[in-house]
Design brief:
298 residues, Farnesyl Diphosphate Synthase, homodimer, two-stranded antiparallel sheet, mainly alpha, 15 helices
Chain lengths: 298, 298
């Protein structure tokens, strides 16, 4: 019988939560992080997120029959990158959000300067945690760092954020909208699958299949976000419903209409799942993850 | 005869300026950087700075009789880290500076959101440029990345910035002031020497000597900055003189008085130069760099 996402996800989530805590609070480190900065970083990583990206790394490494310990550093790194980007996104000069998942955003809880610096530090820590990993070879670590920088940098996630800012001032075309989400979310999801493939020493065929799965999953994640903004429950989501409409933002729903966006979401799910064919039975958890991404209510 | 800093520095400066340009403008890269972001990154790295940190990397690699090409990626990386930190430092929520070296700061020239994201991207690019270098071994690249992250992260440069913010609200003790500058400037200078030692395959003895030189040089750089803020020429410096006093900031001059700060500067220079003894004749350029750091007028 197939296990559902809610049955196997908590163990991975506990694992990543523990590992992230360990990185921030290393009492034996030669130098200490100043208390106000450590507190802000701790707040920034303990934000009750779904941890989809690290889960994706873990699930792929397990699907490739490799010890999860080899995935810990990469799982932490991708979550640190994701969390730092949210903190900077929430700043007054960017999206100016006071709440994230029902809690005050970092610059509200602390102050803007601390939010800027804590997020900067989280980006640094992402590279530090991979570089200092004891289990991976230097070659594997360099491949993963290269791939992470490419996915999260000015040609990847940050490119997506710049296009996103533009989307608040004018209507994007359908191609521009998809390009924005491929950069803003797809690249980091695809990184998770690529890094998992490196750690699990996957064949070129499997690596390509996983990367296709990652892009489809990332895009599905965004389409679902856009749909939830229109039909979601504000209390469950921890943020006001309809904020995209209010900001007059181009979304999959505003571009295609709600029904077409729902159909597109279903197509992306099918594409993600069919990409996994070369993995055979190992793909059960990844299929469940795709099901979760499209059916989630927040 | 000993060559002076102004005789050999321009060649290194041209080299780093060219290499930085190449990183930002790679027309053959698979993905492109969106134009507004590329423009902002270009502005952020073309700020007319002295390029002390990359010069330090190059000079050490040359002192160790190693091809400068092996130092290019590291030299670019440390300058990208330095430039990103200046851009975030200048933001309204931080130091709120409109001018740097006589030019509008990045958030004035573009806007705050672009400044936040361009600097984020520059941090990413620092790790990318090292990871994608073709000349260094994977082991050397991992050592350099690890050292860079440690020097520039929440236990290094960013720790120094957090302490610096605190210094604007209360008087720091002499120990706290020195600790702030060791983190804020010394760690990145020491990184330059450590990375140079890795690239040049220096012995443990030489590596330690170089690191001591780096810390002394970094601290001397800060003491000189504090002195220039009191007795410097605003036009030459490109920023208003006396801004530390106006902000009631703890500096070496406010803590010890001008004469004692000048004496301390001389001591640090002597410490830096005497640290270089194990290098023998190879240290000529590094001695001239120390002379320049303490005698510069901006």
């Amino acid at each position: 019988m197939t296990k559902s996402f809610s049955q196997f996800a908590p163990a991975y989530k506990d694992r990543i939560d523990n590992r992230l805590q360990t990185i921030v609070n290393q009492p034996n480190h030669q130098k200490i992080i100043p208390a106000p900065l450590a507190g802000a970083i701790d707040y920034g990583i303990s934000n009750g997120g779904k941890r989809i990206r690290p889960l994706l790394v873990y699930m792929i490494v397990r699907a490739l029959h490799t010890d999860l310990a080899h995935a810990d550093a990469t799982a932490c790194a991708v979550e640190l990158i994701h969390c730092y980007s949210l903190i900077h996104d929430d700043l007054p000069a960017m999206d100016d959000d006071n709440l994230r998942r029902g809690k005050p955003t970092l610059h509200i809880q602390f102050d803007e300067a601390t939010a800027i610096l804590a997020a900067d530090a989280m980006q640094t820590m992402a590279y530090e945690v991979i570089a200092s990993d004891d289990l991976l070879t230097a070659e594997a670590k360099i491949s993963i760092i290269s791939s992470l920088a490419s996915a999260s940098g000015p040609r990847g996630m940050i490119a997506g954020q710049i296009i996103d800012m533009d989307a608040e001032t004018r209507q994007l075309s359908a191609t521009e909208l998809e390009n924005m989400h491929r950069r803003k979310t797809g690249d980091l999801f695809a990184f998770c699958t690529e890094a998992g493939a490196i750690i699990g020493a996957a064949s070129a065929e499997i690596t390509l299949a996983l990367k296709q799965y990652g892009y489809a999953l990332g895009l599905a994640f965004q389409v679902k976000d856009d749909i939830l903004d229109v039909i979601g429950n504000a209390e469950v989501m921890g943020k006001p419903q309809g904020s995209d409409i209010e900001q007059d933002k181009t979304t999959f729903v505003s571009s295609y209409g709600l029904n077409a966006a729902i159909a597109q979401l279903e197509e992306l799910k099918e594409l993600a799942i069919s990409s996994l064919a070369p993995l055979g039975e190992g793909s059960a958890e990844l299929i469940a993850l795709a099901e979760f991404v499209v059916s989630r209510d927040h």
